[in-house]
Write a structure and sequence with these properties.
alpha/beta
């Protein structure tokens, strides 16, 4: 079974949308599922579920401090490969709690071992009534895979269903082939841990703000 991604517009189409609607450069707190995606939004972070944000490194730059404060970010997951650490690095080490992960965006990279680490970090953030941003370089492959895995676990969803949830908020996500395969392999791992997954028909339930504030860490 292959993972399904919606048809994405061409680069020219997205550039046209950006030229027409580039006057909206602020993050939408409500982030409704049926928004119209704009190319410029790739450079912003989006709220996937309450208090869980996904975006590119550009969203965590020093110039974005005001925006990070405005949405209440307290924790940041910084995903990069060792060779990228010179330019993808924590910019607010004294202000936010960071989790830095060494993950290459290659099909042979093992990402499953990082899923429970990120899950515990997010749960810790939620227990402290905080909000977390997960970013890599572009916010498309590595960081997206980590968020998808978390949604699978907490919403009891299959990989395909979790991808739809994340893509409904950040349309440009596209984990590499190896990560997509590992997300499928994560399904039986979750089931072996006693986490039932919804049937492939649809989303079992939505993730509410109360979920983020009252996360059951015994599930980890």
């Amino acid at each position: 079974m292959s993972l399904i991604f919606g048809d994405q517009p061409s680069e020219d189409e997205m550039n046209q949308n950006e030229a027409i609607k580039d006057n909206n450069n602020t993050v939408d707190d409500n982030n409704a599922a049926n928004f119209e995606w704009e190319y410029a939004m790739r450079r912003q972070m989006q709220q996937i579920v309450p208090n869980l944000w996904l975006g590119p490194y550009a969203a965590a730059l020093k110039t974005k401090e005001e925006e990070l404060c405005r949405v209440g970010i307290t924790h940041i997951v910084c995903v990069r490969q060792d060779i990228e650490s010179h330019w993808i690095r924590p910019n607010f080490p004294s202000k936010y709690k960071y989790l830095c992960l060494d993950i290459a965006d290659t099909p042979t990279q093992q990402i499953i071992p990082h899923f429970p680490v990120v899950s515990r970090f997010i749960d810790e953030c939620f227990q402290e009534r905080g909000a977390v941003l997960i970013h890599g370089n572009a916010g498309i492959s590595r960081s997206a895979a980590l968020v998808i895995a978390y949604i699978m676990e907490k919403q009891n969803l299959t990989a395909n269903q979790a991808i739809r949830v994340v893509q409904s908020k950040r349309f440009c996500i596209f984990p590499n082939e190896g990560f997509r395969q590992q997300l499928q392999e994560y399904e039986p791992i979750l089931q072996a841990r006693g986490i039932p997954l919804a049937s492939s028909g649809g989303v079992k339930r939505s993730f509410s703000e109360e979920d983020s504030e009252n996360m059951d860490t015994n599930q980890i």
